[in-house]
Each structure stands twice: as structure tokens, then as C-alpha cells.
Amino acid sequence: MTELRQRTAREPDAPTEDKELESEAKVDGETASDSESRADLVAPPAPVDDTPEVLNRALSNLSSRWKNWWVRGILTLAMIAFFFIIIYLGPMVLMMIVMCVQIKCFHEIITIGYNVYHSYDLPWFRTLSWYFLLCVNYFFYGETVTDYFFTLVQREEPLRILSKYHRFISFTLYLTGFCMFVLSLVKKHYRLQFYMFGWTHVTLLIVVTQSHLVIHNLFEGMIWFIVPISCVICNDIMAYMFGFFFGRTPLIKLSPKKTWEGFIGGFFATVVFGLLLSYVMSGYRCFVCPVEYNNDTNSFTVDCEPSDLFRLQEYNIPGVIHSVIGWKTVRMYPFQIHSIALSTFASLIGPFGGFFASGFKRAFKIKDFANTIPGHGGIMDRFDCQYLMATFVNVYIASFIRGPNPSKLIQQFLTLRPDQQLHIFNTLKSHLMDKGILTPAAEDE
Amino acid sequence: MLELRYRGGDPGPGPGLSPPREGNAAGGDHETESTSDKETDIDDRYGDLDSRADSDVPEIPLSSDQTPEILQKALSGLSSRWKNWWIRGILTLTMISLFFLIIYMGSFMLMLLVLGIQVKCFHEIITIGYRVYHSYDLPWFRTLSWYFLLCVNYFFYGETVADYFATFVQREEQLQFLIRYHRFISFALYLAGFCMFVLSLVKKHYRLQFYMFAWTHVTLLITVTQSHLVIQNLFEGMIWFLVPISSVICNDITAYLFGFFFGRTPLIKLSPKKTWEGFIGGFFSTVVFGFMAAYMLSKYQYFVCPIEYRSDVNSFVTECEPADLFQLHSYSLPSFLKAVLRRETVSLYPFQIHSIALSTFASLIGPFGGFFASGFKRAFKIKDFANTIPGHGGIMDRFDCQYLMATFVHVYITSFIRGPNPSKVLQQLLVLQPDQQLSIYRTLKMHLIEKGILQPTLKV
Predict the structure, then answer these.
(1) What is the DSSP letter of A187?
(2) Which parts pass through the membrane (chain B) (predicted)?
(3) Which tens digits make up the pLDDT trace of B264-274?
(4) Would you call B195 an interface residue with chain A, using a CB distance cutoff of 8 Å?
(5) Could you tell me which residues come within 8 angstroms of residue B243 by beta carbon, excluding any fewer than 6 positions away?
(6) How far apart are CA A243 and CA A258, in angstroms?
(7) Within an 8 Å CB–CB cutoff, is residue A123 touching chain B?
(8) Separation CA A235–CA A228 (nearest Å)
């Protein structure tokens, strides 16, 4: 925010500007100078140093540079510890945390939009932004709830109606917001209002869809949530360390601190980390099993027979490595092979999300998204590399691991007309018989 | 580009960026690199533009009058006001006849038409973005915008093709591969575009580039999703495409006529020409029109049947047993209508009742799409989206009210008419693991036997 005030204060020809705008004032009702000066008055104050008092006192004797480093380090450890606690507490708490992170990220980006456009005073707009967030969340959570809580929903009559007409209800809610936006257009602020409308929608597209894909991945099994996120975090930290110790060649003009050595070192370190982490986690059922909602106990359970992906198998080592290591075969989980793909994406493409956020911050002349975490900036600063990871994991699971959700298919099947059901049933039957999965003898039982 | 030169050449009242000021500012600027002063603040120049009120924004120049020569000669005798009215009228009739011609030519031509309109709308909105931000010279950006359009279209068409052409697709090996990994391939293509965008960020143009990126994405969200919903509605049956679109067109025309003859009370400040009389008159006439159009179209199998692709004839066919929705039912009239019409019952197609809902939406909420477009044009100081159609403006000008209609029809169909698409369910079933398929088969069999749809096989 200091940059913004500096920029507006630095215009020595502001007086001439005001004069010219005042002459236009006779034509329009309100002048641009009015909105500018008002914006100066109501611009939010520069953020003060948010470091908690505790840390300040503990580190008061160190020099300012080391103090910053220590603050960052302590906060990093605090966040990682927090992450472990949440994992321990279970899927329900994880989902709530994801939702809170989503809301905070949305809030941060929208606040930046307000600051950029000095649009605190636009009528309705803050209400409308939060309303759209609510609508889109309602739509996505409704779809998820309908899929995963199918039996619970069928039992309760009001829930059943809500889920049957879910799309229509969501669309109506969105339409109401749209009509309110159109009715709230004020004559001198059309452009600002359209900008904020566009800004809100792009933010929703980024933040809300990602968070829902994260929750979908979570329902596949907590390992699909933990391994990708840890790979991105590990890549961040490792690339920083490698860059710190060995960094020479700059990587990209957008982020002058990143180096090729950090990039490549981070890549290899992340792949190794992903292999080790998936080996450790694949042993435990609570990570590997899909999250299911148990109607009887009214809670989430993670109990199942681990699928093929999470059972140790023998792999033959190719001749090259065989001579080096001296082992003929190695026992690995198939999931570890997938984790190589996930780690590769996290190290090679994940940083582009970070560059995108850096470019965004430079474009709008802000140093950090917000000041939520001392030493680190806002929540978005921590999550910018995760941006693409969630989508990739979701697409990866859908394409390579398993296809569509069987329970969802059964549910869709049951809503079809009888003749359509029969047609599908017969096609499936002939397909199964062709493949030999179904034998006529077994069929007649 | 005219504005760019005008503003740069103007000494005093430029948007606060005259050269001497830049010299003083460069020292205190937080940009550490010392670059030429004029270039440093391109972002600032357009950034300040954003936070100003509308009055400060220069108008975008209009293209020259594009009325074809023929019309000019034919109407040279009339005064300019009537000439404009005649041009609009002739073009309206031309567009309506073109519409009928394409309907006659069949569903495949309709799909091509929808695709063509979508591409043109995208082009118009993107061009406005270029003109607003004077960003013709941004490196790569035009290529990237069209690339994103291609990616999103590939994704959506792939999903549609997989659903509706299931039998055709099963035959070809390469297509099978493409369908199976379709989401992954689409995502990879999109990612490539995203990475190209990040790599193309140029130091002095960050803000402009981000604006164009966001502009492209919002435009894609609007135009591409709508056009694909239109095509999905089309596959349900051409009547689901024709009745909504003609209701919106009818509402436009009748609201205009009612407003012309009876209009007194203005409706909304955004569009000063609209009146309450036009709005309400348009509503009633659109409901009546929709009712009658539904009655006439429901008789023909050509309009009513879902479109299917037959692999033997390699073309689209619309042949089926019309659903319950399109068969005449007798409804008993409520008593007050009985007295007026002196009939006990009336035979209607159930679809006509649905058409009332569609027409109501077209007349009450459809205009909000028009107001949105009017607000957009005022915000960016343009008179029309483009000059494609003489007398009417661009394609977007004609389609702005249709904007919400396609989504509404799609949501209406999936919520009230029928559930999910059976061919999609089948396709997903065939992709599952064999053991999952077997367990689903058993569940389905039990369910069908329970409902009596399937007779249990007798043991011999």
C-alpha cells in the first residue's frame, strides 16, 4: 500500500490535472478528482509489522537480517507442525481447513482488487463478491455432497429435493446475483464495476475450483492429498536451499532470486522425497483408503482393503542400475511410480504458478498478497505453487488411476427412464460377455 | 492508436505522465532498473486509467459505415432516418430467412453455425479488449488468445463427441486413445498455453498482459460455455434449440414495437430507450408466441426427436417415437376459462406448458443479458460491439439476450425433463475396471428385476 500512496503523492502536476478535470465537472455530475482524492483518504493504512510480540522479544538481540531469517524459519516449522496436527485430526477437519484457506485466499485477492481500483465505495460490490463466492461454493459442495453422501441424502426428504433440483437452485441463486449486479450499475462507475465483476469471476475460477479439486483428491485417499502438497512444499524449500548454496545462473527475469541450480537440485530432491514419502505412507490404511461416510456412525471412516496400487510388488531393476546397486529386484509400491510423475510435475510446472503470482504482484505493484503470516506474506503467497498441482492430480487420477466413480454411475443410472435403463443394461451385458468376464453359465444362476 | 498519439502529444492535461515528472520520479521509484522514462510507466499509464471514472476515458473510434453498396443505391432517395429504419428492417428479414434456411439444411449445419457464431463473438470481444488497452503490440498475445480458444473448444467438443458418437468412436483405435485420455490431453494443452503466457511476460507490460489474460478467460467463460450448452440442447431435439431462440428474438421485436407505439415510462437508466410498456407487452406476446410455436413444431418428428448419429449412414438422423412430452393430452380447463371459451377440455402438448416457462424466462430475465451488454458498452465507451451487420452492429449485439437463455434451457432440461445423458452413463460404464463392471452389473440386474423391468430368467 505504501507504493500506491507514493505513486499518487508523486504527481506534481496533480494541480493541473485537477483543473482540467474540474472543467469537465461542469459536464458530469461528479469528477474524477473527487473520486481520486476520496480514494486517497480512504486508502487502507500501510501494513504494520505483524510479527507477534513473543517472537520480537525472543529475537530482539539479533541483527535485523538474521531476525528475518529466524522468523521465517520458525513460522515454516509452525506451519508444518500445524499441517501434521490437522492430518492427525482426520478428513473432516482437513476439509474445513481447505474451505477456510479458500475463503482467505478469495478475500486476499479481492482486497487487492479493491485497492487497485480504489473501489471501496462502490455500492453493493463487497456484498455481491461474497454472494457469488457463496453461490459457487453451494454449487460445488452440493455436487460433492450428492456424490459421496448419497444414502444420507436419500433418507432426508428436504435434502433429497435439494439434491434433485440442485443445478436449478444454484443457477437461480447465481442469476439473482447477476441481476443484482446489473441493477447496481451506477452511471459514473460502469468500468470499475465491470472490472470488479471480471476480477471476482476470475478469482472464483482460480480459487474455488482448485479447492474443490483438492477435496475430490482427498476423498480418493488422504495420500493423494498429502503427497502432492508435500512435494510442492519440499520443492520450494529444496530449491531455496540449493539456490542458497550453489546458485549462480538466474532462471527467469520475473523472479531474480531463482536460479537454475536451485531448480534442478530441487527437482531431484523432490523426486527422491516423493519416493520416500510414498513408501512410508503406503503402509498405512488410514492414508490409502478412500474416505467414506458411514451412515451408522455418522462419521467418516477410512477402512478398506488396500487396492493393487498400494501393495508391495517386485520389480526387476534394469541392467544399468543393477550393476550399480547390486540388487536384482526391488520391492516397491506401484504408487511410488506414480509419485515420480507427481513430483516431476511439482518441480517442473509447479514453479510456473509461482512465476504467475510473481508477475501478478509486479503488475499490481504489491510486495505480498497480504500480511497474514509474519515473514511469509499472505496465504496466497504460500499456496501459489499449489495452484496447478490440485488440478493435475485430479486429472491424473481420472485418466490413469481409475475412471468414473461407480456409486455415482449407479445413482445416475437410477434416474434414467426404464427403457433407457434396459438398453444400457443389455449393452453392458453384451459387452461383458464379449470380454468373457461374464459367462452364460454364471448368468443363469 | 489515435488516442495513444493524442495523449502522448498533449503537454499538460495528459494522464499525469509528462516527461519532466518522470525524471524526478525515476529516482524514487521502487523499480531498481534504470530504463527509459517513457517506457517505464506504460503500466502506470493504463493502470491509472482504470481507477479513473468513466468520464475520463476516451471513446473508441467507430469503424466507417459498412452498409453495402446495393442498399445504399436502393435507398438513396429516402431521408436518413427512414433509410436507417429500412436497413434495419431488411437486415432483420435477411437474418430470419438465413435462420430458416439453416434449419432446413439440418442439424450438422446448425452446429457449424453455432461454432461460427461463437468464434466471431470471441473475436469481437477480444478486439474490444485490444482497443481498450491499446495492446496490439503485446508480444504473443493474439496467438495465445486464439490458442486458449482452441484448447477450451477441444475440451468441450471432445466431451460431446465422446458422448454422442460412442459407436463411431469405438471402431477407431486412435480415437479410442484420444477419448480415454481426453482430460489429460486437454489439461496438458492448456498448461502449455499457461506456461507460454508466464514466459511471455515482458517487464513493462505486466499489468496489460494480466488484464488481457483475464479478459480472454472471462470471454471464454461467457462465449464458449454458452455455445456448448446450445449444442447440447440441440442434441436433445431441435425444438429445444428453436423455441428458446425464437422466443428471445420475438421478445426483442415485440418489446420494441410495443415501446414504439405505447412507450411512456422508462424502464432502467442503463437503456433509456426501453420502457415498461414495451417490457410487459413483450412478455405477454412472447408467451403467446412461444405457446403457438411449440404447438406447431411439436407435430414434426424432425424437430422433436433427439439427434443421433447413425454409423451406417454416417450422418445425423432424427427419427424416433416422440416422447410423452410431444403427444397430445387432454387437459380439463379451470372453470373461469370454461365459461370464456365454452369448451370442457383442450388438447395440448405438455411441451407447451414448458414453453410458457421458457418464454417467461426469455422475457423477464433475458433482457438482463441485454442490460449487461449495454452497461459493458457504456463502460468501455463503444457504440456497438463491431460493425459486422449493417444497421445492427456486431454479432454480439444480436446475441446478448441469448446469453443466459442457453444455460437456463440446459439447466431446465436436466432438472425437470430428464436426468443425465444415457450414452454418457454407458460410456463411463465401459471405461471401468472389469470387476467394477461386474459388481455394477449385478446391482443393476437386482434393481431392474425388483422394478419389474427385467423378467428374471427361469431356471431350466
Answers:
(1) G
(2) 85-117, 138-157, 177-199, 211-231, 237-263, 275-297, 351-373
(3) 888 888 788 88
(4) yes
(5) B290, B293, B294, B297, B355, B358
(6) 7
(7) no
(8) 11
Q: Is B416 on the interface with A (CB under 8 A)?
A: yes
SS (H, E, C) A376-387: CECHHHHHCCHH
Probe site for chain B from A132, A150, A170, A185 (most B CB atoms < 10 A): A185
- Interface contact A325, partner B, CB < 8 A: no
Q: Give the CA dihedral A317, A323, A328, A334, nearest 10 degrees.
A: -20
Distance CA B317, CA B319 (A): 6
Asked whether the beta carbons of residue B54 and residue A190 sit closer than 8 angstroms, the reply is yes
Question: pLDDT-derived band of residue B379, with 50, 70 and 90 as boundaries?
Answer: confident
Mutation for B interface: A121, A182, A206, most B CBs within 10 A? A182
Tell me the pairing of strands A299-301 and A292-294.
antiparallel
pTM of the model: 0.76
CA distance A232 to A237: 9
Write phi, then psi, for B453 (nearest 5 degrees). Answer: -75, -30
**Domain spans in chain A, listed from the N-terminal domain onward:** 222-403
The reported pLDDT for the residue numbered A21 is 34
pLDDT of B377 reads: 85
- Residue A250 touches partner B, C-beta closer than 8 Å: no
Q: How confident is the model at residue B358 (pLDDT cuts 50, 70, 90)?
A: very high
Compute the nearest-CA separation of B31 from chain A (Å): 10
Q: pLDDT above 70 covers what percent of chain B?
A: 73
* Cα A199 to Cα B211: distance, rounded to the nearest angstrom: 10
Nearest-Cα distance to chain B for A137, in Å, is: 18
Q: What is the pLDDT of residue B192?
A: 93
Asked if B51 lies within 8 A of A418 by C-beta distance, the reply is no
- What's the distance, CA A429 to chain centroid? 41
For the question of an ipTM over 0.85, the answer is: no
Q: B84 vs chain A: nearest CA distance in angstroms?
A: 28
- What is the spatial distance between Cα A398 and Cα A392, in angstroms, rounded to a whole number? 10
The answer to whether A16 contacts B13, with C-beta atoms less than 8 Å apart, is yes
Contact criterion met (CB below 8 Å) for A276 and A336:
no
When the pLDDT of each residue in chain B is averaged and rounded to a whole number, the result is 75
H or E stretch covering B316: strand B315-317
**Whether A100 contacts chain B with CB within 8 A:** no
**A171 touching chain B per CB within 8 A:** yes
Q: Which residue of B has its CA nearest to A182?
A: B372
